[in-house]
Structure formats: C-alpha cells, structure tokens
C-alpha cells in the first residue's frame, strides 16, 4: 500500500496546479470562441460536426470543466509519487495518471457522439420527436435530477470526495498500475457526473454559461464540506425546472432536437 509522505517539493505541486488551471483557462477560451462562431449549427445535437471534430471539442470541454475539479485527486497522486521518489522508490509521472483519465473521458465523448447522432436520425425520421423536443428535454432534466439522488451517484461521489482514501485503497505500482488507477478514477468520475453532461444537450451543447454552472456544481459536490447536500439541492432544482419545462410552464434556453 502507498504511503502519502509529506510533500517534498512544494514548487512541483504548485507547478502542476498552475499547469492544470492554465490548460483549463485556455480550453475555456477555445469553447467561448467555438460557441461564438457556431451559428445555426448550435441547433444540432452534434453542432454539425464530424466525429473527429466533435471528439476534439469534447476533449477541450473536458479539460475546461474537469481539470479544475479533478485537481485535488491529481495532486494527491503526485504527492504520493513525489514521496516515493524522495525515498528512491519506483515512481511514475503524474501525467500518465492524468492522460489516462482524459482518455476515458474521450471514450465517453465517442459514446456521446453516437447517442447524439442516433437521436438526430430518429428526430429526422419521426416528426413527433421534433414536435415534443421541449418535453423530451424537460424529461432529461428530471431524469438527471433523480439520478443525483441514486445510490450509484453517491457511491461514485464518495470516491471522488476522498482523494487520500482513493489513492491509498486503489494504489498500484508502475506504469500499468498508474493507468489502471487513472482509468478507475475516471470511471468513478463518469458515474458521478455523466448525467450532468447529458443535460447540456437539451440546454445547449455549447452553452458556455451552462457549462460554467455545471463546472461549479461538480467542484462543489466534490470539494466542499457540504457536497452531498449541494447534490441534493441540485437534484431538486433539476426536477422542478425539468417538470416546469415538460408541462409548458418554462422553456429551455434552446431546443436542440432539430
């Protein structure tokens, strides 16, 4: 089992944190530019993009939204590795862990593109879906709110909220072990957050304001003392808003089922 020795190189820790936040800031700038130049393609679930371009934008989105929220886990992994290096034990660079995390989220982007493409084809074939896009979007919001209260959500969230516990219990030596740990953390992160990304489709896949709100919510759930209560408040808000949209009391920022 790994031991989290006192961090021997504070400068390295700050460099990693600054790098993560800088990459996230650049990614946010790219998303802002992309959203301002998308035009009418915003009305499509895939934004009119080919699969490679969609995945590229998805990866940028993950860097923007997930690097800040994953930073505590990444820094904890680096703390342990730095301690091992100081004791002249085998160690692995933190970027293998981070890169594996991003690869798993990229695979999720492939699945998201497939789902969006399939939904678009169904909408083209069945006019009923086009006519009830608002109600379907409201249903997605309600489902996301309900998922916030499920045992699976809380099980995954508990793993993400305890970086020290995750690293201690999931530790594997070597490069292969690091890849496994990065993939495992990404899967827990997906289990915690995937429905919050699904609501981007009805709310606007390139709506930067909504993305920022979701990022703040994910960070609060994972990092603040009352994270689980915050998840419950978000659940209530999603259910209420989704129900209001479903019954025509409120509207979505933009219907994307076309």
């Amino acid at each position: 089992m790994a031991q989290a020795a006192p961090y021997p190189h504070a400068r390295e820790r700050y460099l990693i944190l600054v790098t993560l936040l800088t990459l996230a800031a650049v990614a946010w700038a790219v998303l802002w530019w992309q959203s301002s130049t998308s035009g009418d393609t915003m009305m499509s679930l895939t934004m009119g993009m080919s699969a490679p371009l969609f995945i590229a934008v998805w990866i940028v989105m993950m860097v923007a939204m997930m690097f800040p929220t994953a930073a505590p886990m990444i820094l904890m992994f680096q703390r342990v590795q730095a301690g091992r290096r100081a004791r002249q034990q085998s160690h692995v660079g933190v970027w293998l862990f981070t890169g594996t995390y991003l690869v798993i989220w990229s695979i999720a982007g492939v699945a998201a593109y497939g789902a969006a493409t399939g939904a678009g084809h169904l909408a083209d074939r069945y006019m009923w879906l086009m006519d009830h896009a608002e109600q379907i979007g409201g249903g997605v919001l309600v489902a996301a709110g309900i998922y916030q209260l499920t045992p699976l959500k809380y099980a995954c969230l508990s793993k993400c909220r305890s970086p020290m516990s995750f690293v201690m219990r999931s530790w594997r030596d070597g490069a292969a072990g690091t890849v496994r740990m990065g993939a495992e953390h990404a899967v827990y992160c997906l289990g915690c957050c995937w429905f919050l990304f699904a609501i981007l489709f009805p709310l606007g896949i390139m709506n930067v304001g909504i993305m920022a709100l979701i990022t703040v919510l994910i960070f609060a759930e994972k990092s603040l003392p009352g994270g689980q209560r915050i998840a419950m408040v978000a659940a209530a808000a999603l259910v209420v808003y989704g129900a209001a949209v479903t019954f025509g009391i409120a509207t979505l920022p933009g219907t994307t089922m076309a």
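Residues 4-8 have pLDDT under 50 and may be disordered. The two ends are 52 Å apart (CA to CA).
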